[in-house]
């Protein structure tokens, strides 16, 4: 294959590629403090708990959600470099605990085999232990939040937790439904993914006593960023705009999971490919050849680029929300993160 | 068999039989308000959530834990009949949500088939949905607590939740361990059962602004009552002091669960019955005949009456803790509940 054809035309050729590194660098010291808190508070005298928790927590991932809490707190106090971040650090660790608890339960619910490049915890310690350690981390999150004495931040994260659980149930009951409309799909990912991004940023702002305008802007940034990330992830699962497949590409299809690119392709091939989709998604019969064919249809109908267009719009909305914040390195880094959310799939 | 021999000698022949009715009657109006709150807050736009929640919530059970929250709030305000119970009612509903969430997860973890006289929810809606609806109810509990604006009560129930989860994991890893010592067993039931009784009562006291002495007395009452209830339950599973078996008798043995009567009997038949215990508990091979034999050994070695003696001591400690409270109908009803905890197994 000709090297020139390796990359399909970009959905947004003018979009800055952005990066997540600028933010990670700025937040390095704060995130080290968050990591220390996480490590300290996942301890228990019941030996398997820290073992299992460490397995998933130390695998790390990007710590994107607590990073958002810190970034929100820092950007809201850009004019107060000596602002007290004690509460925000604890809220950031709480956010990561909530996220980790949902991952543990998700993997049990989906029967997933891998998580963060490692064997999923429930395959090592059993589903029962994974469920209970998830419960423990969730409870620990609330214990940590109580320490901040910030009942408003607590309310934000409690509500987010109930929204997430409802989103999970909604997804579970509609996961293989080819008739899912786009609105319902967006409702699912808003609840499952974007809500915690929103709450992470909002609670960081609340944790440093930001004014309502700033707080609401940061919440809006988080929500839109979360949607952009999820939609770009959905596109990446079919290779994004690149012809080269990423290492986890095909996972959604293999699990028969209905995502935006698939929904769009199903709609755009209505009357032509119904039997194929019915067999592979509703009928749960999927081979590697089927994935190749699904990908052809999804890329060929423009479903991937339409998904990336939508992701781009959410990223733009995220950046727009930041408008009310004073300019500075934190704001700039958040803008670059929004661009990166989409460009990594382009 | 002669009717006279149907009842074995009582462990505590002088103990008042007590009852749970006096308290239920006193708390009738408050508990109706709690029930209304529970029904209202378990709603969700995701249809399966209220369906599953109603299945387990409306099966009812004794609502013992929220009843404790109400009783604590009322007995701490015996001299203020017009005290505002809004927060206590919400805390009571939160306590029931936390309890229900743990039941849903427990049944998945244990693979239990029945709950509160009904088919267990996970057998109807699947384990995945049960786990996620449990998460939802747990999150809802915290949302409800946030509404009370009582960060201290929140801290009590957050800590209780993490203690419960740790107790569950500890039990899971030691459930079939015949070498479990009594101290570890008491640690497990303190965490799994008594902690929520303690937190339920304590948060009720905090919710009405009770003084530290009253609050701590009510916590102590709840903790000791929880231990008394659990030990009496353990005894009941082998028929208690009666020769007639209750309807759920044998469940613990059938699940190979190590409880106090079994631990005592194993210790008291050491060297004689090791092979029997090893096969039935460690080896997981149990017939109905095995249950009859286990029960003979457990009753014959006095393990049941020793368990009831221990339960009686905790019930007495619960009543003693109430000493600092002003006399009145609520205090009297709590005393009768402590007696009932044990006598129902005698």
TrEMBL record, chains A, B:
Stored Gene3D superfamilies: Farnesyl Diphosphate Synthase
Keywords of the record: Magnesium, Metal-binding, Transferase
Pfam family, one: polyprenyl_synt
Cofactor: Mg(2+)
PROSITE patterns recorded: POLYPRENYL_SYNTHASE_1
Domain of life of the native organism: Bacteria
Any one GO molecular-function label of the UniProt entry: prenyltransferase activity
GO biological process, one term: isoprenoid biosynthetic process
Residue ranges crossing the lipid bilayer per the database entry: none
Similarity annotation: Belongs to the FPP/GGPP synthase family.
Annotated protein name in UniProt: Polyprenyl synthetase
